[in-house]
Each structure stands twice: as C-alpha cells, then as structure tokens.
Amino acid sequence: MALTLKLDAIEDLPRTPASDVKKLGWRGVMKAIGRKGMVVVTNHNEPEAVILSAEEYGAIMRALDDAGSKNESALDVLRQRFDERLASLQAADAGDRLRGLMRGPAKLGGKVKAGASH
Questions:
Q1: Which family does it belong to (predicted)?
Q2: How many C-beta atoms lie closer than 10 Å to residue 24's C-beta?
Q3: Residue 52 contacts residue 30 (beta carbons within 8 Å)
Q4: How far apart are CA 72 and CA 53, in angstroms?
Q5: Which residues contact 43 (CB under 8 A, 6 or more apart)?
Q6: Which of 13, 29, 37, 82 has its CA 20 to 30 A from that of 108?
Q7: pTM of the entire predicted model
Q8: How far apart are CA 46 and CA 36, in angstroms?
Q9: Is the model's pLDDT at 96 over the cut of 50?
Q10: Distance between CA atoms of 21 and 7, rounded to whole angstroms?
C-alpha cells in the first residue's frame, strides 16, 4: 500500500509570528496547528521554524520509509545482478574462458557492439 503525501510549500502554510507564540503560549500554537497540521513560526516575517502535529510527522516518516523501501528494492535487484556477474568471473575456468574469447575473431556481423545492452 503506497502512501501518497502532499506537502504544501512553506509559503502556503499558515504563519504565526514568534511574538504571538510567546503571547498566546503553547495552547495558541496548538490551535493553529489543529487547523492545518502545521504552522510556520516567523521572525521579522521570515520563516524560522515549522511546527508539526504528531500525526503530520508520522505521515512524513511513513512516506519516507515507503520511498526508502522502493529504493532498497531497486538496489537489491542491481546488487543481485552484479553479484551474479562477479560470480561468473570468480569461477575456476573464468580465465580460460576469457582467453578463449580474446583469441577468437570478433563476430559482429558488421555492427558495432558496446556493452551488454547494445
């Protein structure tokens, strides 16, 4: 089950000045977070921090884990293919097979061959 996470740009998040955080206290900040799930705290109208609800933080972490799992799966496939190729080079007869290939004529059929996929 893939988790899709839509995050707004920092410019689009609700803002509260640092002075309001001091004045309204934690309850005021939590009310602002309750409306959108996060709030940008500004100092002289410049973003200084983003405060997230625990739910928003959890959603971000789950999305990162999901993305990391997909990358790990692709990396595992590449690692397996590399290990298979490496194993064939480490076989006892690998040197003899390579010398045999190098001694024989190249059979390209009039085409240039570069790499395994061309």
A1: Belongs to the phD/YefM antitoxin family.
A2: 14
A3: no
A4: 29
A5: 17, 18
A6: 82
A7: 0.51
A8: 19
A9: yes
A10: 23
Position 53: which residue type? S
> Distance from CA of residue 22 to its chain's centroid?
36
Rounded to an integer, what distance in angstroms lies between the CA atom of residue 41 and that of residue 26?
Answer: 12
- Pinpoint the alpha helices (H) of 37-91: 54-89
pLDDT of residue 2: 46
Tokens of 38: 């996060």
Element holding 30 (H helix, E strand): helix 18-36
Question: CA-CA distance, 49 to 41, in Å (whole number)?
Answer: 5
Q: Which residue has the tokens 């955080």?
A: 21
pLDDT at 46: 93
What tokens does 36 get? 């959108």
pLDDT tens track for 53-81: 999 899 888 888 887 777 777 788 888 88
SS3 56: helix
Q: How sure is the predictor about 1, in pLDDT bands with cuts at 50, 70 and 90?
A: very low
Say what the pLDDT of residue 51 is.
Answer: 92
Are the beta carbons of 49 and 41 closer than 8 angstroms? yes
